[in-house]
Amino acid sequence: IFKFLGAISVDLGEDRIKPYLPTILTPLYRELNSTYAEQDPTLKNLSQEIIELLKKLVGLEAFSLAFSSVQKQANQKRAMRKKQRALQTVANPDIAARRKLKRHKNKAETRKRKIESLRPTYKAKRPRSHALKDLAMVE
């Protein structure tokens, strides 16, 4: 997709690509700022190359305006998701409590796996099943 975006940008030229610049920059920006553990470095390099190509193609001023608008939009979305999550915690405390229990349980499992990998002789106790009853609220 990134190669396609770069090819279309070069093919359309400077004047015809400017209206579509924010649309083209959105996935490129997302890839550059992603924090996933299994991130592909070639994809990141490709997006950086296409951004440099677009910068040369449309000029620094037009590129900067479009890039800043994409950045602002991404930050607004991130803030809105964070606000929604906080509101959901207040509006639905039972769902929030279930989510918190699940997160805590996953954290404990991760800790056990880490200890087992560091000390192969150590065997942590594991729960028998991951059924819905494990997530139930205990009164």
UniProtKB/TrEMBL annotation:
Lineage, top ranks: Eukaryota, Metazoa, Chordata, Craniata, Vertebrata
InterPro entries: SSU_processome_comp_20, UTP20_C
Organism of this sequence: Spheniscus mendiculus (Galapagos penguin)
Name used for this protein in its record: U3 small nucleolar RNA-associated protein 20 C-terminal domain-containing protein
Any Pfam family the entry gives: UTP20_C
A GO CC annotation given for this chain: small-subunit processome
Annotated ranges, domain U3 small nucleolar RNA-associated protein 20 C-terminal: 1-116
